[in-house]
Write a structure and sequence with these properties.
There is one protein chain. By secondary structure, this protein is α/β, with parallel strands linked by helices. The protein binds flavin mononucleotide (FMN). The site of flavin mononucleotide has 23 residues, from loops.
Length: 376
């Protein structure tokens, strides 16, 4: 299987971005002394101190131990989250699910749980602490029907009493800080972020991550950071801004607009495990790291594939297909490569396809960089 690429048509930016980047490349937000000073101290999540203000979000089907290893290479001090873990499934399982596995030296790490029943969540939280969780995060933002129809995820926005009970029960069950991640409301007509956040704070959360979209929005439209600013003003515990953080500029802009205590990266990291580290570096130094070259990104894709196959076997290869496609962006011919990567059956096949491209584009493109600026 061969891949043809046109070296005259190299573009620096993904042509397949579904939405324009929030901040055009020409807009550069600088790190003002005030912002630098405000974020120079550790992020305090109850008793846990984190030396970075940039967090890697929980992403179901993505943020497994392998992905987190890659992100951590560039952002060793950042807080990372497991994929969300079902407290109900955990209750019935004898063996711990793979989504709950963390590397023994992986710090700081939060295990995210979902369900509607406080006692199931408390039981799951104890197991998560045994696994090494530094904090327990409760998912109150997932929009997926399968989760919300059972009263979990974002449907808790409609049941603040139960959401508060969950936080109280889990906080009593474990000694590590309990945090929550939620959205600004159920729908455009039902935005209750401030009231809901205050309720969770009274119940004992030690940090809140707020995704600036409603449940009805899913992942569409732009995140409304103004609600994050309002919630930040209303709470004493740290508030982390989430939604549309696809670049260093977006992170700085968001931190300025919201005055949040940190930012959490999500879709911006798909096929781009460099993002959390890039933002962290900028916040600490005021300097931009050079973006990875296309060759570096494709080498990272190869490594990701090998690691996933080692960790999960055949299912790791199936899972790697989407990751490979996310990496194959930013040069003409990438679409053809993506199409082939989406069907790989083995590590050799995937690495071979990537190697062909690397061989063709090196050394001409070794210096061509690609910085992700928009959604996958
Ligand atoms: C593939 C995918 C999986 C996700 N899985 C989770 C999850 O397990 N737990 C969670 O709290 N949010 C999850 N989210 C939501 C993200 O963490 C984040 O809140 C959302 O994508 C908004 O940020 P963004 O606009 O920067 O992508 C997921 C999002 C995506 C796209």
């Amino acid at each position: 299987m061969s891949v043809s690429i046109n070296l005259d048509q190299v573009s620096h930016h993904s042509s397949s971005a579904k939405h324009p980047p929030r901040s055009p490349l020409t807009t550069h937000y600088s790190l003002t002394p005030a912002l630098k000073a405000r974020l120079a101290t550790p992020l305090k999540i109850g008793t846990v101190e984190v030396q970075s203000r940039v967090l890697q979000s929980p992403l179901s089907g993505v943020t497994d131990l392998v992905f987190r290893r890659l992100v951590r290479r560039y952002a060793p001090q950042s807080m990372m989250y497991t994929e969300m873990v079902s407290a109900a499934e955990l209750h019935h399982m004898r063996k711990l699910p793979k989504v709950m596995e963390v590397d023994p030296d992986e710090r700081p790490i939060s295990i995210q749980l979902f369900d509607r029943r406080p006692e199931f969540l408390a039981e799951a939280a104890k197991k998560a602490v045994d696994q090494g969780a530094d904090t327990i995060d409760i998912n109150m933002g997932c929009p997926v029907n399968k989760i919300t129809k059972n009263g979990g995820g974002s449907s808790l926005l409609k049941d603040p009493d139960n959401a508060a009970r969950i936080i109280e029960t889990v906080s009593t069950a474990v000694s590590v800080p309990v945090t929550a991640k939620t959205r600004i409301g159920w729908s455009e007509n039902d935005i209750n972020a401030v009231k809901f956040a205050r309720r969770l704070e009274s119940a004992g959360i030690q940090m809140l991550t707020l995704h600036g979209r409603t449940r009805s929005q899913g992942y569409n439209g732009t995140a409304d950071w103004s609600w994050i600013a309002k919630v930040k003003q209303a709470l004493s515990v740290p508030v982390i801004a989430n939604g549309d953080i696809f670049s260093v500029d977006a992170a700085i802009n968001c931190l300025e607009q919201t005055q949040a205590d940190g930012v959490m990266c999500s879709r911006g990291t798909l096929g781009y495990p460099f993002l959390v580290g890039e933002i962290d570096h900028f916040l600490k130094t005021g300097k931009h790291l050079p973006p990875p070259t296309i060759v570096e990104r494709l080498r990272c894709a190869q490594e990701h594939l090998v690691m996933l196959a080692e960790y999960k076997g055949k299912s790791g290869i199936r899972q790697a297909r989407k990751h490979m496609a996310w990496y194959a962006k930013g040069f003409d011919g990438a679409a053809e490569l993506r199409e082939k990567l989406c069907r790989i059956e083995s590590v050799e096949e995937g690495c071979g396809l990537l190697e062909q491209v690397i061989t063709v584009i090196s050394p001409q493109l070794c210096s061509h960089s690609y910085r992700k600026t928009a959604i996958v």
